[in-house]
């Protein structure tokens, strides 16, 4: 592949742009704060004390590094590529989300903020945020759509146990985008004392870059672990993409390695052609939402349309701007997996590896199922096992309960 | 003066004439906000056409958006009512065109979010808006950092780009906010969304005074203004008072289209009377 070098370090530019994507499309009230955050983050990035604290919490609190595990049975099952799972589900709170939350809460402390807010879809980011807020003694308010509250009740309870206040969001479809609107409204109203921990590589600059940097620990570790195991880089990387934080975290440290192929898997819902999906790159067009320009699900009048996915964490009508750019650069291939394919891969992972993955993660595994069989055993494929599936038991029982003689949880 | 401001000011705009005349009358402008297409097209048209007679000096017309991040519940619901009844960007521009057939003086400012404009196509939007008779734009999610997107092209079409200054706009930030501003400056009285809490009077007056030291443009104040009393107090020292959510609430609470029109126009009349009288009293505090 003939890619420009230094894809990874040069972007975003000073205005937060990845090519034509990204930016700072926010209300003026938020601009001074966003500029301040940008400065604070730039300082923290080069501050050895901040980095020391970050490393400490990533290690002793989150449990990093997460293993890079050779999935022998899954490899045998598909009969092709050697499949490695980057075990982000073993992190404290059960997903990659906490990598970012630890970084942002440290920044919030540094900036003297007194209150934490966040949006959540699947509830994993909400749980991770509530967790770090508890750990750092900050009051925490989580916005969550009513549809998601319904399908992720375990996580709602977890957040409450951790001391967070959950505010149900009824507007729109009651999913992630509506929760984000409401969190932005809270932020603009409480701009003086509140830190908004955005859960994915979306939002206005500096969030997409900052969240990416905090998640890039996934890719850095993977790189070292693979070099240790095989003395070479992996051949392909696969991750599911909602907003895109677990994917960019894995991909980013490899962007300048042209031989490493990267595949992002969007939620195909009932199929991209059906119109009921959450695949912004495969089924959307460029637009501006939640502070950045990216690909969106929208009608021709620029009204955002509803996303659909079996997985609450992927049920978002946009995608991080860096992914939009990597898509147009053709550096990363973006595909989609349907609800049904994800459910199938979910079960295969349970049965073959004894690992219950999150439904989000199951989308990445569905792509592995399509791709791995035709590849040789020497092909080293890394899948980001972004989260564990305990939170999804209710949804899965709803879809598969009959098969197991379980009616309801 | 920047080249952009010059382009705009070559021929006198409706906004300039409006503010010049009100200055002579020594009173602030009453600016109304309604969402285009709320609750549906025909009632929205009647609402719009009746505003000047009811006493509105400048019309803000909202372009509904599915995800109005800077708006509170009242205007969110207005946008949904409009969109559910089929409102589009094209229909909003058509509303302005029809209004202009019978009114050539009252300035109209379109207010909204960038995405529907971006999707319509910036050049096509500006051309259509200009020929429909739109005077200005307020686009909430386009800070000066993105002036090349719409603010600068708008100037070339003779459309003012009205900038928002807010309680968080400090001395360091203000020059950037004012740089390409034209038409008037919209001072957002509270950090928050539309329809929220009322501004604190003392702090507001000093903020407006400070703003005035830095710009010759008229200063409008909006967000959280609901009553004739508030409008009068703020109208003493500002050049315009914006009322939105209170009007939009009238539409939500009306049982019939006729009732919506009556309620909105009667609140407008009340507000209009109040801003017309607010600088007349000799003892300003009583006002
Ligand atoms: C386990 C898991 N994976 C993936 C995602 C999707 O987010 P992102 O694309 O930002 O990684 C989520 C979001 O909730 C999640 O919980």
Automatic annotation (TrEMBL), chain A:
InterPro entries: Trp_synth_b_CS, Trp_synth_beta, Trp_synth_beta/beta-like, TrpB-like_PALP, TrpB-like_PALP_sf. One of its GO terms (molecular function) is tryptophan synthase activity. It is an enzyme of class 4 (lyase). Its cofactor is pyridoxal 5'-phosphate. Keywords: Amino-acid biosynthesis, Aromatic amino acid biosynthesis, Lyase, Pyridoxal phosphate, Tryptophan biosynthesis. Pathway: Amino-acid biosynthesis; L-tryptophan biosynthesis; L-tryptophan from chorismate: step 5/5. The keyword Signal does not apply. One of its GO terms (cellular component) is cytoplasm. Residues 63-387 form the Tryptophan synthase beta chain-like PALP domain. The modification N6-(pyridoxal phosphate)lysine is found at residue 97. Its EC number is 4.2.1.20. It comes from the Bacteria. It catalyses: (1S,2R)-1-C-(indol-3-yl)glycerol 3-phosphate + L-serine = D-glyceraldehyde 3-phosphate + L-tryptophan + H2O. Belongs to the TrpB family. Tetramer of two alpha and two beta chains. The beta subunit is responsible for the synthesis of L-tryptophan from indole and L-serine. This is Tryptophan synthase beta chain. The gene is trpB.
């Amino acid at each position: 592949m003939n890619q420009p070098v230094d894809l990874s370090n040069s972007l975003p530019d000073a205005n937060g742009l990845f090519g034509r994507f990204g930016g700072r499309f926010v209300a003026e009230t938020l601009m001074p704060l966003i500029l301040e955050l940008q400065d604070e983050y730039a300082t923290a990035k080069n501050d050895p004390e901040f980095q020391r604290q970050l490393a400490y919490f990533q290690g002793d609190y989150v449990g990093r590094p997460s293993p890079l595990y050779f999935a022998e049975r899954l490899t045998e099952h598909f009969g092709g590529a050697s499949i490695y799972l980057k075990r982000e589900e073993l992190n404290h709170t059960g997903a990659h989300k906490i990598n970012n939350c630890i970084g942002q809460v440290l920044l919030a402390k540094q900036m003297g903020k007194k209150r934490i807010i966040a949006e959540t879809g699947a509830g994993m980011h909400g749980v991770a945020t509530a967790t770090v807020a508890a750990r750092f003694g900050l009051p925490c308010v989580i916005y969550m759509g009513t549809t998601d509250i319904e399908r992720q009740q375990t996580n709602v309870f977890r957040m409450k146990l951790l001391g967070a206040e959950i505010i149900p969001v009824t507007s729109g479809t009651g999913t992630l985008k509506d929760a984000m609107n409401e969190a932005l409204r809270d932020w603009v109203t409480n701009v003086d004392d509140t830190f908004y921990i955005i859960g994915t590589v979306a939002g206005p600059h500096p969030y997409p870059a900052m969240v990416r940097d905090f998640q890039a620990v996934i890719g850095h570790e993977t790189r070292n672990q693979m070099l240790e195991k095989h003395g070479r880089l992996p051949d392909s990387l696969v991750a599911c993409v909602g907003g895109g934080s677990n994917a960019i975290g894995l991909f980013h440290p490899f962007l300048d390695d042209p031989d490493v192929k990267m595949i992002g898997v969007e939620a195909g819902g009932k199929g991209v052609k059906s119109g009921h999906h959450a695949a912004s790159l495969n089924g959307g067009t460029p637009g501006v939402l939640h502070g950045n320009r990216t690909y969106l699900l929208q009608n021709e009048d620029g009204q955002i349309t509803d996303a659909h996915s079996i997985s609450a964490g992927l049920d978002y009508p946009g995608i991080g701007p860096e992914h939009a750019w990597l898509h147009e650069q053709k550096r990363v291939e973006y595909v989609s997996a349907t609800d049904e394919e994800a459910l199938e891969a979910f079960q295969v992972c349970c049965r073959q590896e004894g690992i219950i993955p999150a439904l989000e993660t199951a989308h990445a595994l569905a792509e592995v199922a399509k791709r791995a069989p035709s590849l040789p055993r020497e092909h080293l494929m890394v899948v980001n096992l972004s989260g564990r599936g305990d939170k999804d038991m209710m949804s899965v029982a709803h879809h598969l309960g009959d098969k197991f003689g379980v009616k309801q949880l | 003066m920047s080249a952009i401001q010059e382009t705009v000011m070559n021929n006198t705009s409706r906004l300039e004439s409006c503010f010049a005349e009100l200055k002579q009358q020594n009173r602030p402008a009453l600016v109304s906000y309604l969402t285009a297409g709320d609750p549906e097209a025909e009632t929205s048209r009647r609402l719009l056409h009746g505003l000047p007679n009811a006493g509105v000096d400048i019309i803000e017309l909202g372009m509904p958006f599915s995800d109005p991040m800077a708006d509170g519940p009242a205007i969110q619901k207005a946008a949904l009512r409009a969109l559910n009844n089929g409102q589009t960007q094209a229909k909003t521009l058509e509303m302005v065109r029809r209004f202009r057939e019978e009114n050539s003086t009252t300035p109209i400012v379109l207010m909204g979010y960038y995405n529907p404009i971006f999707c319509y196509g910036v050049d096509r939007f500006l051309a259509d808006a200009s020929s429909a008779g739109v005077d200005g734009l307020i686009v909430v999610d386009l800070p000066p950092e993105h002036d090349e997107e719409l603010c600068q092209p708008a100037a070339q079409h003779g459309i003012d780009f009205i900038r928002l200054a807010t309680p968080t706009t400090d001395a360091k930030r203000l020059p950037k906010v004012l740089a390409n501003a034209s038409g008037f400056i919209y001072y957002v009285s509270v950090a928050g969304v539309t329809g929220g809490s009322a501004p604190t009077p003392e702090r507001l007056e000093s903020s407006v005074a400070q703003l005035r030291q830095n710009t010759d443009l008229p200063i409008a104040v909006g967000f959280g203004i609901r009553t004739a009393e508030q409008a009068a107090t703020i109208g003493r020292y500002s050049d315009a008072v914006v009322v939105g959510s209170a009007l939009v609430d009238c539409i939500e609470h009306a049982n019939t289209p006729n009732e919506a029109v009556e309620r909105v126009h009667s609140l407008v009349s009340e507000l209009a009377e109040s801003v017309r009288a607010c600088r007349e009293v000799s003892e300003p505090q009583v006002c």
